[in-house]
Amino acid sequence: MGDRFDHYNSFDDAKIAREDRAADVKTAGPLFDAKTRAQIEMKLTDATRLPIAEVKDIVDTIDHLAGEPGANAKQIVTYAVAGHLPKGKDGFLKNLAGELEGVVNKSIGDREARIEALHATPSAPAPTVTSKNTLKV
Q1: Which of 72, 66, 70, 79 is CA-nearest to residue 32?
Q2: Handedness of CA 49, 50, 56, 61 (dihedral sign)
Q3: Which residues of the chain fall short of a pLDDT of 70?
Q4: Residue 92 burial (10 A CB sphere; 0-12, 13-18, 19+)
Q5: What CA–CA distances, in Å, run from 64 to 22, 61, 68, 73, 103?
Q6: Is 62 in contact with 80 (CB distance < 8 Å)?
Q7: pTM, to two decimals
Q8: Contacts of 67 by beta carbon, 8 Å cutoff, 6+ apart
């Protein structure tokens, strides 16, 4: 009985951890600022000739997947773009993923820094001794 209880508690703990992470990601803000997002959308539109709605979907997918802890930028970009490209564009996908990987990786690092800053507690100042009372021997 105890094993079953522990098993369900581990599911609850994992669910709570996922919910906490999702709240942290939401509080930390979007992965890309407006300028970077516009540049990525323009690059994808120029390179793929996809409709803007699909390009926005790709960028939204990247933003969503990058919220997972330990996210791999190359895998995220490859997964997000692969579903939208027609057959025979595999070489293009590799080139595009290589170009976007650096931007996504930096943005992930920036978001993780914002999340860590949310959890950072200001350290208490070191206690100082200001007493003028001295013990005379």
Answers
A1: 66
A2: negative
A3: 1-9, 88-93, 121-137
A4: middle
A5: 10, 5, 8, 12, 15
A6: yes
A7: 0.71
A8: 21, 22, 25, 31, 111
Residue 125 amino acid letter: P
Distance CA 80, CA 63 (A): 10
Single-letter amino acid, residue 135: L
DSSP state of 85: S
pLDDT for 38: 92
pLDDT at position 129 is 46
Who contacts 25 (Cβ-Cβ below 8 Å, separation ≥6)? 67, 111, 115
pLDDT confidence of residue 135: 42
Cβ contacts of 45 within 8 Å, gap of 6 or more: 52, 55
